[in-house]
Amino acid sequence: TYPSFATIETGMYQHHSQIFNDKIATPLSADISTLSERLHALGYATANLMGLGDGIYNGVTRGFHRLIVNPNHLSSAEAVERTIRQIEAFDECDQYVFLHFSDTHTRSILMDALPLATQTHLPLEERLLGAEGEKTSVFLSERAIYSHANREGIRRVDRILGEFFSYLESRFAPEEYVVHLYSDHGVPVYEKEPYPTSENQACAALMLRGAGIPKIGRCAELVSGLDFYPIVAHSLGFSPS
Questions:
Q1: Which residues pair with 210 in a beta bridge?
Q2: Residue pLDDT tens, the chain, 241 long
Q3: Separation of alpha carbons 172 and 108, rounded Å
């Protein structure tokens, strides 16, 4: 997440931005403009309403007028509620709002509580057997409890974002908003031998909706986190260079 966030917000490979490890405090060069800085310069009121604090010390989030840090609790329901409040509080402004939620993020059962439906629908043996300790999400093993939790998270996000899109449609004309939805990585829990560049790990969400976005359904074109910066630039009408 740490290097991916910097890559997405700068459109640069890690060896160019020099941000690749959260244990090595490398500040982003002042002559590199982040997405939030570009939107700030274009007159948008920029707000990061839910996110980790990683981007504060390395400069990746330096373009936000308002920044609320949530190091652990990153709920899509809370994020959407904050967004609606932001939209209505500053409705005289053009707004660029960033949200970071982790409902679909798989974690070891020793590190975080899994969805209630996962806890109640799987047998006790499956919930306890082989529990990983401080293992990060990209190295978790294939287990029913993790795939079940991931699907529960996807269903929750789908429901909550559906309500949010309904709100946008009721308040704005189609040409008045753009939504970009993306993930920084996939999940390993559907593979018997997970590795960081496997298909399920490398296949991450990238979805767009709103003004000027063609309704083409699913696209088979290969993209990466590096493409997000120019995608935002194109959809909001400024040059990424």
A1: 178
A2: 888 899 999 999 999 999 998 888 789 999 999 999 999 999 999 999 998 888 898 999 999 999 999 877 889 999 999 999 999 999 999 999 999 998 888 877 766 778 888 888 888 877 776 566 657 778 888 888 888 989 999 999 999 999 999 999 999 999 999 999 998 888 888 888 777 888 888 888 889 999 988 888 888 888 888 999 999 999 998 998 7
A3: 40
What is the DSSP secondary-structure string of 56-92? HHHSTTTT-SEEEE-SS---HHHHHHHHHHHHHHTTT
Residues paired with 182 in a beta bridge? 206
Q: Running DSSP on this structure, what letter comes out for residue 133?
A: S
Mind giving me the DSSP string for 7-54? HHHHT--HHHH----TTS--PPPTTSPPHHHHHHHTT-EEEEEEE-SH
**Beta-strand relationship, 206-210 and 95-99:** unpaired
Specify whether the CB–CB gap between 148 and 118 falls below 8 A.
Answer: yes
C-alpha–C-alpha distance, residues 154 and 186, integer Å: 12
Choose among 75, 35, 74: nearest CA to 52: 74
And the tokens for 172? 């704005």
